[in-house]
Amino acid sequence: MSNKDNNTYVWRERKRTIFGLPLSFTVYKLDDEKLYIETGFLSKKEEEVRLYRIMDLTLNIPLSQRIFGLGTIHCCTADKSTPEFDIKKIKNAREVKNMLSDMVEKQREAKRVSSREFMSEDFDHDEF
């Protein structure tokens, strides 16, 4: 991932802080198949979530963010290590959410994944 050229990302944004300025050490990156969340300054952590594993997206725009043109996208996934996460305080949050939603659907179609595959293993199809 670190060898990846910035031009290969569909979207890249830094979490914004006071007055909507990008002064944090959290960077979000999106390519055709994965969403990356890089945090930290001295000690770095990078999470990646495959797009087809994202189940639900919710846009939150509290007044404190709306004033600066920001929003937060809450994501629920079928990923065991990252079942829920937020893409916090980003510009153009509605457009990013819509783009991400479309990309999730394309990845699900490409991988032939349906929401049925994410249901609990305890679910018994023979009961009906």
**Proportion of residues in helical segments:** 10-25%
- What is the mean predicted local confidence, pLDDT? 88
What percent of residues are in strands? 25-35%
The CATH superfamily is known as Pleckstrin-homology domain (PH domain)/Phosphotyrosine-binding domain (PTB)
Q: Calculate the terminal CA-CA distance, rounded to whole Å.
A: 45 Å
Number of domains: 1
Along the chain, the helix and strand elements come as EEEEEHEEH
Structure, explained:
This protein has 128 residues and is α+β, with helices and mostly antiparallel strands. It has a single domain (6-113), classed as Pleckstrin-homology domain (PH domain)/Phosphotyrosine-binding domain (PTB) (PH-domain like). It is built from two helices and seven strands, in the order E-E-E-E-E-H-E-E-H. The chain has helices spanning 63-66, 93-111; strands spanning 11-14, 27-30, 34-39, 45-50, 54-60, 70-77, 84-91.
Structure characteristics:
single chain; 128 residues; alpha+beta; PH-domain like; 4-stranded antiparallel β-sheet; 3-stranded antiparallel β-sheet; 2 helices; 18% helix; 34% strand
What's this entry about, in short?
This protein is an alpha+beta fold.
Task: Walk me through the topology.
Elements (H helix, E strand, L loop, with lengths): L10 E4 L12 E4 L3 E6 L5 E6 L3 E7 L2 H4 L3 E8 L6 E8 L1 H19 L17
Antiparallel strand pairs: 1-2, 2-3, 3-4, 5-6, 6-7
